[in-house]
Amino acid sequence: MTRLHELHEVEGQSPWIDNLTRPSVLGGGLQHLVDQGIRGVTSNPTIFEKAMTGSDAYDEQFADIVSRDSVEHAFWDMAVDDVTGACGVLRPVYDTSGGTDGFVSLEVSPALAADTAGTTTAARDLHQRIALPNLMVKIPATEEGIPAIRTMIGEGRNINVTLIFSLPRYEAVIEAYLSGLETFAAAGGDLSQVHSVASFFVSRVDTEVDRRLDKAGGSTSGLQGKAAVSQARLAYELYQRHFSGPRWEALAAEGAVVQRPLWASTSTKNPAYPDLLYVDSLIGPDTVNTMPDATVDAFLDHGTVSRTVDDGVEEARDHLGRLADAGIDMADVARVLEEEGVASFAKSFDQLIQSLSDKANALKSGS
To answer: Do 157 and 138 form a contact (C-beta atoms < 8 A)?
Structure first.
């Protein structure tokens, strides 16, 4: 049994891998990770950009598609094939977990982050193209994304809500899930088949808060490197509060399952901090931690399997208060990080399409 197995079996947290490539799906790399204890897969435009431009594994399919269709259609066809293959690898995990784990996530186009109707249509289309029970479509938790999330849950579709950076936005995400379940129940839907995670981005919070603290100067000693874990622990408190009580109990009685908090962006960006700061500090039941390859390797090697997600909740609340006293506006931090996150994924998507366009032009010219 590996530390990843213990993480799930002892503490109730599901480790997912934040990477998806065709060579890994077809060559057994993903299956090896599953054997080591990985229970789900996430992807994003940046991951696909690296996979598709850094490997020749896509060349034959790409050449065939662009001979008769657009570059962007070629991307989606290739991404759908990768996700479908990964869903096949993870399907035994889905089946043996009773539908709790074994999910593979695919994101709608980042160009739709401010387009509610477009996001809704795109998410529905992906679910129809990949008609598998262990697909999760990722929708960003922008203001425009929240209504699309509610609509998709109301149709009984699995959604990975991504790019959450603040506690108020997380509460809006929970509300979208609960009201979506109520809509689905009213239509006679089977609530037990609806699954969702709420992806709270972690390390980027410390990066932005620390930058502001450095700029502020003065007496900020002891404040660096603690905002992200503090906010995530308070997010878990919100999760416990909202997934209990009469409203939730009524949904649970009809078969509803909780929307689990997912800790994303968990690789440590500051080399001065422990490499597993955002894993070891946020372990607890009914949570997911999606890690890049290096973080998975580090946890397998020296991770600590111990419940920590609800340690020091009052200290976490106090820390955010001290940050406010130091002039750190967490609402503005979240706004900046959301804008940067959306822009980063959009840039990766644009770069990917440009690289694929260059490759298509080279194929047409015979070079």
So the answer is: no
Give 25: exposed, middle or buried? Use CB within 10 Å, 0-12, 13-18, 19+.
buried
The CA distances from residue 228 to 154, 200, 236, in Å, are 31, 10, 12
- Report the predicted TM-score, pTM, of the whole model to 2 decimal places: 0.95
The contacts of residue 13 (CB under 8 Å, 6+ apart) are 7, 283, 284, 285, 287, 288, 289
Instruction: Return the H-helix or E-strand segment holding 16.
Output: strand 13-17
Residue 270: how many other CB atoms lie within 10 Å? 13
Structure tokens at 317: 């609340």
Largest CA distance in the chain: 66
Instruction: Report d(CA 333, CA 204) in Å as an integer.
Output: 10
Distance, in Å, from the CA atom of 102 to the CA atom of 39, rounded to the nearest integer, reads 5
Residue range 122-177, pLDDT digits in tens? 999 999 999 999 999 999 999 999 999 999 999 999 999 999 999 999 999 999 99
Q: What sections of 187-226 are H helices per DSSP? A: 203-216
Radius of gyration of the chain, Cα coordinates, nearest whole angstrom: 20
Domains located in the chain, CATH noted: 3-204+229-310+336-365 (3.20.20.70)
Contact by Cβ (8 Å): 179, 147 = no
C-alpha dihedral sign at 284, 307, 17, 9:
negative
Catalytic residue among 50, 138, 226, 269: 138
pLDDT in tens, 55-109: 888 989 988 998 899 999 999 999 999 999 999 999 999 999 999 999 999 999 9
Q: Which helix (H) or strand (E) holds 103?
A: strand 103-107
Residue 264 is classified by DSSP as E
Whether the pLDDT of residue 268 is over 70: the answer is yes
Local structure of 359: helix, strand or coil: helix
Hey, what are 35's tokens?
């054997």
Structure tokens at 16: 């997912």
Give the rounded distance of the alpha carbon of 293 from its chain centre.
Answer: 15
Q: For 346-357, what is each residue's pLDDT tens digit?
A: 998 899 899 889
Catalytic site includes residue 269: no
Q: pLDDT of 177-212, one tens digit each?
A: 999 999 999 999 999 999 999 999 999 999 999 999
